[in-house]
Amino acid sequence: MELGAFLRLTVIAVMLTAAASQTTPTGYANHTVGGSAGWFFNSTTNTSAANYSSWAATQTFNLGDFLIFNTNSNQTVIQTYNESTFRSCTTDDALNNDTIQYGGGSTAFGEALTIPVPLTIKGPNYFFSDAEDGAQCQSGLAFEIQVNHGLGLPPSLNQPPPPPYVTPPGPDFSQTPPVTIAGGSQAPGNSGFKNGVNVRGVACALLFGVAFLCFRH
Ligand SMILES: *[C@@H]1O[C@H](CO)[C@@H](O)[C@H](O)[C@H]1NC(C)=O
Ligand SMILES: *[C@@H]1O[C@H](CO)[C@@H](O)[C@H](O)[C@H]1NC(C)=O
Ligand SMILES: *[C@@H]1O[C@H](CO)[C@@H](O)[C@H](O)[C@H]1NC(C)=O
Ligand SMILES: *[C@@H]1O[C@H](CO)[C@@H](O)[C@H](O)[C@H]1NC(C)=O
Ligand SMILES: *[C@@H]1O[C@H](CO)[C@@H](O)[C@H](O)[C@H]1NC(C)=O
Ligand SMILES: *[C@@H]1O[C@H](CO)[C@@H](O)[C@H](O)[C@H]1NC(C)=O
Ligand SMILES: *[C@@H]1O[C@H](CO)[C@@H](O)[C@H](O)[C@H]1NC(C)=O
Predict the structure, then answer these.
(1) In this structure, CATH architecture of domain 26-155
(2) Which residues line ligand 1 (CB under 6 A)?
(3) Which of 130, 147, 211 has the alpha carbon at shortest distance from 183?
(4) Which residue ranges make up each domain of the chain?
(5) Which ligand is nearest to the CA of 73?
């Protein structure tokens, strides 16, 4: 076989692979955080009910998907786009425009809650519980995800209602009121593509098939 022909076919195979990697999901997904373990912390054993980083590594997250937190009022759900806030395990210094507290309003311990959180901004999204002065977060009730573009935001989430940010108690109590996060805006991050292995598999299959055809002639 001519080297030139082989190179041309290789280029075609690579282009086909690139096209295959553009495939988008067929719909929006709901991800139950922690699977059947839910979003819980045991203050006696000082452990979270699951390894949430491991759980997140099994999922692919896209714009318009929801995270479903099955939990109770002993834990909180904080979503932030700010890594320092995430690392600090507290919302005390958080800016109103990059951090959202879900749920809240409950004063009773152990009250069952299901908290749906829409993914509306591409790139890194961080989640943690700030209950027990950050101890839950420090001991595993925290995780980070990468949100890909997928199908983009559905109309129902293009203009999300103002998130119910709760001003954390403390000396800075008298700060400015909550600010709406523009749902359509995009964080600078990337759309980390998680299916690299599959794409590589397709590339090999294509190259192999092309090479096979060449050698037959
Ligand atoms: C996902 O969760 C949201 C929020 O609870 C809900 O509106 C939607 O119907 C759920 N979608 C699916 C496919 O279960
Ligand atoms: C926490 O763990 C202890 C020891 O395993 C167990 O007895 C207790 O029921 C757990 N508490 C909750 C709320 O799950
Ligand atoms: C969770 O699992 C990861 C490996 O997937 C490990 O590196 C990490 O230490 C675990 N976290 C906890 C809190 O056990
Ligand atoms: C992240 O939040 C911290 C407060 O925790 C703030 O000082 C910092 O400016 C924020 N970073 C960005 C990029 O907004
Ligand atoms: C939040 O506001 C600060 C300035 O107040 C700005 O620097 C930062 O980019 C904003 N973050 C987001 C996610 O809009
Ligand atoms: C919730 O927290 C309270 C106070 O720490 C504790 O007594 C109770 O057992 C917890 N309930 C659950 C279901 O974890
Ligand atoms: C729980 O773990 C955190 C961080 O790992 C630690 O600071 C805290 O002292 C522990 N609390 C208990 C009651 O063991």
Answers:
(1) Sandwich (2.60)
(2) 30, 66, 116
(3) 147
(4) 26-155
(5) 6
